[in-house]
Amino acid sequence: MLNNLSWIENIAPDFLKVIRQRYEILQQISWLSPVGRRSLAIKLGLSERSMRTETEYLKQVGLIDIGRRGMTLTEKGEQTLEQLAPVIAKVYNVSQIESDLAAHLQIARAVIVPGNTDVQPHLSKSLGDALNDALKLLLPLGRNIITVFGGVTMSSVASQLSPTLNRHRDLLFVPGRGGLGESVEIQSNTVCQMMANSTHSHYRTLYLPENVSSEAMKSLIKDENIGDVLDFISNSDAVIHSIGDAQIMAKRRGLSLETRSMLTDKKAVAECFGYFFNQQSQMIYKIPRIGLQLEDLNRIPRVFAVAAGQSKALAIEAYMKHAPSQSWLITDEGAANSILKGK
Amino acid sequence: MLNNLSWIENIAPDFLKVIRQRYEILQQISWLSPVGRRSLAIKLGLSERSMRTETEYLKQVGLIDIGRRGMTLTEKGEQTLEQLAPVIAKVYNVSQIESDLAAHLQIARAVIVPGNTDVQPHLSKSLGDALNDALKLLLPLGRNIITVFGGVTMSSVASQLSPTLNRHRDLLFVPGRGGLGESVEIQSNTVCQMMANSTHSHYRTLYLPENVSSEAMKSLIKDENIGDVLDFISNSDAVIHSIGDAQIMAKRRGLSLETRSMLTDKKAVAECFGYFFNQQSQMIYKIPRIGLQLEDLNRIPRVFAVAAGQSKALAIEAYMKHAPSQSWLITDEGAANSILKGK
DNA sequence: ATTAAAGGGACGTTTTGAGACCCAAAAGGA
DNA sequence: TCCTTTTGGGTCTCAAAACGTCCCTTTAAT
């Protein structure tokens, strides 16, 4: 019955996009309300004006209220959002557990591949495919700047991206942080190059020394090449990153023993692009580096987090609770079940 | 599950109209294929250009083929049409038996009110309400010329039309035929006046003598008043008529004994605006009169037939099989069940 | 007090849908 | 056979809608 929505796909394929978009707008308003036009537009990657016509329409049909402090869902809007959820889920092949997980973490979508990466390392292939599908669905046609971070997960996923992603698009991969100080095969520069190779597109590199004086840093930023890349990063259309276990990452990133014991004291469980979080999702330490900052992430229209394996469940939950609401999480059953069980 | 389509009504109310329209286009193509753009446009009351954009879209999404001889449904189109039928039915509160009847008679829609008019004469009130709803749904806003015919059914239904029909519209009722020769309360002139009164709108009258020479007829048509009304008739936006039993109507219309026995010989069962049909839907006699002709009916975008009661089942089926495919039939369970049983 | 973010107004540009033609080709009736 | 009708398709124009781009006032938070 409900599963047979193919008629709408047949008779009005373009309506689906519109409906999906309106659904996402409603969802974001539900989570962030009261929220303004501009920040919504950035989150969903729309222009401000288009967002305005959409929201004015939604107001006209009585799904949202528009007040001086921002936009809010009406009673009818909330009902519609609830009605809409299973429909969107069906149309886009979202399983029940996926929408449960996404709702629990308050993010746009969770994609779950079968298995548990901890015991089946080859699952990174599935994760890569899932990421590829997600990118294909969300990235607009035309030019796209994609900021990527490093990590074992990222490097094992990178080779699964397909050249068809670059069809009718012009992808440019840039590294999220200067890569010195980590082993070369998992630093973001390398992942960048791998993704560009897999998709037959372009990439940039960013090499910045650690621990330089702010004077020296300023002159480095003036460097044309470096400055360009930093511009790309702050204007990027999408971000792909992973989430790591705090202790492991602290060690791998070569933090001082002092800092590491501090992290242990404060019960850090998650690491994500240089930030450390405890179980309550509070940020408790930040590795000072040039590149994308946590507060910039809100302004990026599309954010993809790739992290899987039951062992990463705690870390994922710790970070994700405060991740930008437009985030997608690509994970596996091992992590998903563990997160939902502790709910 | 499937019955809960209210989400689409909430999030995109205008989509429903588009979907309904595309459905009707597909349906007409299915029945009339191969069929051309222009004739389709006339049948559905669209402009030729709008029909073109619609059909070009339908071609693009692969629901129809569009060749030199006209348009045809593709395999996918037929599947979609079948999938769509119950959806449209649900959205517009069409019961199973209604869509069965409409499909059997190959008309756009059948509306069935509960009961059997033969034994419950007060049902004409329900029939009138049903007609009123149908008109409200189908008539576009703005000016509408509506040609109406006479008959007992018509006159008993006329008073049920409501003034809200005339809101944002400008209705003009004109009689389908010159009315001399029938008892005054059931001739189309009277029905016209009743409908105009009920809806607080306007009407015209048409009085033409019977059996005049063609010379005299020509000069009559030159008469400004009469000519105007005839113009209205041929350019009307909707037609409302009834269907009668052949024998009864032959008698009421005062046909000669000779003609009546001819009708009996040829097994006439149905009468409709002066035409007589046998059980095989063949036209076997036509009362020569000025006014709307059977072949004009195809060019009228909206056609409503009102006929109910088990006793009229044969007549309804005989006429309806060759009625224009955009027709709506307003009937009751008595007639509907009888028609479908003989199927 | 200052700042950032909220909604909303205004204006010019671009895009799209529709009206109004015309045309050649194919089909069908006389 | 010819001639009319009907077919899809091409093209020009115009108006409405959508959109990009500013700017404004108000409001809440710092």
UniProtKB/TrEMBL annotation, chains A, B:
<dbReference type="InterPro" id="IPR036388">
    <property type="entry name" value="WH-like_DNA-bd_sf"/>
</dbReference>
<protein>
    <submittedName>
        <fullName>Sugar-binding domain-containing protein</fullName>
    </submittedName>
</protein>
<feature type="domain" description="Sugar-binding">
    <location>
        <begin position="92"/>
        <end position="341"/>
    </location>
</feature>
<feature type="domain" description="CggR N-terminal DNA binding">
    <location>
        <begin position="18"/>
        <end position="87"/>
    </location>
</feature>
<dbReference type="Pfam" id="PF21715">
    <property type="entry name" value="CggR_N"/>
</dbReference>
<dbReference type="InterPro" id="IPR037171">
    <property type="entry name" value="NagB/RpiA_transferase-like"/>
</dbReference>
<comment type="similarity">
    <text>Belongs to the SorC transcriptional regulatory family.</text>
</comment>
<dbReference type="InterPro" id="IPR036390">
    <property type="entry name" value="WH_DNA-bd_sf"/>
</dbReference>
<dbReference type="InterPro" id="IPR048715">
    <property type="entry name" value="CggR_N"/>
</dbReference>
<dbReference type="InterPro" id="IPR007324">
    <property type="entry name" value="Sugar-bd_dom_put"/>
</dbReference>
<keyword id="KW-0804">Transcription</keyword>
<keyword id="KW-0238">DNA-binding</keyword>
<keyword id="KW-0805">Transcription regulation</keyword>
<dbReference type="InterPro" id="IPR051054">
    <property type="entry name" value="SorC_transcr_regulators"/>
</dbReference>
<dbReference type="Pfam" id="PF04198">
    <property type="entry name" value="Sugar-bind"/>
</dbReference>
